[in-house]
Amino acid sequence: MAKDKIIGAIVMILGILIAIIYTMGSVVDLWFETLGGDPNWDAFFRIFEIDWLDYRLFTVLPLRILLQQITPLP
């Protein structure tokens, strides 16, 4: 019983840390895209030609998924 709670706590902490790191990466990417003037600063993070730190992945995509669950989009 206690073992399950410890594993659950570790998984939860790891998930929170990943979300924080990803959010900060998206905020930094938004700054470089707008004020920083260097949109290709994160070229070495691109895996399979996807910009994983793109701010739109963190802001637009979750909103689209949420709205799709509430009212299906065509």
Distinct helical segment count: 2
From the alpha carbons, calculate the radius of gyration and give it in angstroms. Answer: 17 Å
Structural class: mainly alpha
Q: What is the CA-CA span between the terminal residues?
A: 46 Å
Describe this structure in words.
The protein is an all-alpha fold and 74 residues long. The chain has a domain at 25-74. Helix content is 69%, strand content 0%. The protein starts with a helix and ends with a helix. The mean pLDDT is 73. The chain crosses the membrane at residues 7-32. Keywords: Membrane, Transmembrane, Transmembrane helix.
What are the main properties of this structure?
transmembrane; about 70 residues
Brief account:
The chain is mainly α and 74 residues long.
Helix-strand layout with pairing:
Elements (H helix, E strand, L loop, with lengths): L1 H35 L18 H16 L4
Helix pairs in contact: 1-2
